[in-house]
Specification:
205 residues, 34% helix, single chain, 4-stranded mixed β-sheet, alpha/beta
Length: 205
């Protein structure tokens, strides 16, 4: 059973496959598409599936932003359609949280601050903490003016460190391993997966 994950919230497009039964990351690929994202997303995903059958997909994971408005919306809509057609669970992941997950083992005694540039002196900001084997959002993800973000961090009482975006392939690895972690946590807890319609873009508002 495979999990197909992808994120279109920021350049480049990142996609990956994870074997949920073998607990193994199979492949991650990136494409720098720019304005061609809308026309090339589906062809890229079909190309990426390659020798894998769509029937092998047991879950879809998607980065929900915040990030590019158009890119984020396109990715989430595509993921919702795939999950509906394949009748598989859809895991919506914060794109800022995915960056924090990449650094999770460094966040046991300090918070991780993730920021993405927005327009006109604003940024998307999220603060994350890794406890008990899980990554938790302790603030955000929200759109703030740069001055508001500076004031927030100046008054933050817990030790923290800013987290730089990892290379695209490492980001893809983080997206797939975080999705797999949440998949197995849900199964162990005996819970049901949320309906695909509950996964929406995160615009930081």
């Amino acid at each position: 059973m495979l999990c197909l994950g992808f994120d279109t919230s920021d350049a480049p497009l990142v996609a990956g496959l994870y074997d949920l039964r073998a607990h193994q990351l199979l492949e991650v690929k990136t494409w720098f598409l720019g304005r061609a994202l809308a026309s090339q997303l589906h062809p890229c995903l079909n190309e990426f599936m390659g020798s894998y059958a769509w029937g092998e997909i047991g879950a879809i994971a998607v980065g929900c932003g915040p990030g590019s408005f158009t890119g984020t919306r396109l990715g989430v809509v595509t993921a919702r359609v795939l999950a509906q057609q394949l009748e598989v669970p859809l895991l919506g992941l914060s794109s800022l949280g995915t960056i924090a997950w990449h650094y999770r083992y460094e966040l046991r005694e300090q918070d991780g601050v993730v920021s993405r540039r927005a327009q006109q002196g604003h940024q998307y900001l999220g603060i994350y903490r890794y406890q008990g084997g899980s990554l938790n959002s302790v603030w955000g993800d929200r759109l703030l003016a740069d001055s508001e973000a500076e004031a927030l961090l100046a008054s933050w009482l817990y030790p923290y460190r800013p987290l730089a975006p990892p290379p695209p392939r490492d980001y893809g690895c983080a997206l797939l391993t975080w999705a797999a972690h949440r998949w197995h946590d849900t199964l162990r807890a005996g819970k049901e997966f949320p309906h695909w319609s509950s996964v929406v873009p995160l615009y930081g508002k």
